[in-house]
Amino acid sequence: MQDLPVCYVGVDVSKDHLDLAWLPDSESSWEQHRFHNDLPGYQKLISRLPKDAHLVMEATGPYYLGLALCLNEAGIKQSVVNPLVVKHFARMRMKRAKTDEVDARLLAEFGERESLP
């Protein structure tokens, strides 16, 4: 049985917002969205995800926990990664810009390159 392709979705988490980024199938431009970091925001986020989504986010204090629990309850694949590992990944790729949108894309790229479980 062959595994379905995975669409890694980077999630930059802050106290108030969640910035998401992913590359849709056979397209060259990033799809990006911003949601509130609360239950109604999580519900909107889940409704907009590609069906083969695997979300990648950093462990950012308590701000990622609500989303992680909601995704787990909905049965959506996710990986919570160490911010220091992602920082070194960014350095290796010579990425210096620090915006929420750029960080979300970086997390999606990290998930793709590392084939996160």
Write up this protein.
- With 117 residues, the protein is an alpha/beta fold.
- It is built from four helices and five strands, in the order βββαβαβαα.
- The radius of gyration is 13 Å and the shape is globular.
- The model has no long low-confidence stretch (mean pLDDT 90).
Report the uncertain regions: none
Distance between the termini: 18 Å
What is the tally of beta strands?
Answer: 5
String of helices and strands: EEEHEHEHH
Helix content: 25-40%
Shape: globular
- Counting DSSP H or I runs of 4 or more residues, the number of helices is 4
Alpha-carbon Rg, integer: 13 Å
Structural class: alpha/beta
Major sheet summary line: 5 strands, mixed
**Major sheet strand order:** 3-2-1-4-5
Strand content: 25-35%
Mean pLDDT: 90
